[in-house]
């Protein structure tokens, strides 16, 4: 059993090395859960915020420091991030006065934008003996262009 676990870890390491070379996105493998349906990732989640309002490079530098410190802790099996500082950013200015006059909650507008442009977690459900996460998002052709965001704001 110990030899099988070692072989699996070696395969997983080689696979992660190959996955890290994919330019289209971030992908990595992780071990199957000890208890089916529970999962092995997501033991905890951490959010690093830049409350000083500095630039992306400042946040990326602090994230690198945090990850380096976390990786030194043996009780943390592995740590990763979905933050990619080199990805271009777009900003959408919401006319809050107009939104409030129409009787719409600002949080609803921001959640709609998040769901449209990136995706929004809805809930979990169990099926086929597994736990699945449900996300809602617009189809890729619609969310690939910033000008399309106006369509959801006019609805």
Describe the structure.
There is one protein chain. The chain is mainly alpha-helical. 40% of the residues lie in helices and 10% in strands. The chain has two domains: 26-89, no CATH class; 90-155, Multidrug efflux transporter AcrB TolC docking domain, DN and DC subdomains. The protein has helices at residues 2-19, 56-71, 96-101, 106-117, 140-143, 149-154, and strands spanning 120-127, 130-136. The chain has a two-stranded antiparallel ribbon with strand order 1-2. The longest helix has 18 residues, at 2-19. It starts with a helix and ends with a helix.
Present the secondary structure layout.
Layout lengths: L1 H18 L36 H16 L24 H6 L4 H12 L2 E8 L2 E7 L3 H4 L5 H6 L1
Antiparallel strand pairs: 1-2
């Amino acid at each position: 059993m110990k030899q099988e676990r070692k072989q699996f870890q070696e395969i997983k390491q080689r696979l992660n090395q190959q996955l890290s070379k994919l330019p289209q996105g971030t992908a990595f493998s992780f071990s199957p859960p000890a208890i089916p349906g529970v999962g092995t990732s997501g033991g905890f989640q951490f959010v690093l915020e830049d409350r000083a309002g500095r630039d992306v490079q400042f946040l990326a530098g602090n994230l690198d420091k945090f990850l380096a410190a976390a990786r030194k802790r043996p009780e943390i099996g592995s740590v990763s991030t979905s933050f990619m500082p080199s990805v271009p950013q777009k900003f959408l200015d919401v006319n809050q006065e107009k939104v409030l006059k129409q009787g719409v909650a600002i949080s609803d507008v921001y959640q709609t934008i998040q769901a449209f442009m990136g995706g929004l977690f809805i809930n979990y459900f169990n099926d086929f003996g597994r736990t699945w996460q449900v996300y809602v998002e617009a189809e890729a052709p619609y969310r690939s262009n910033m000008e399309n965001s106006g369509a959801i704001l006019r609805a």
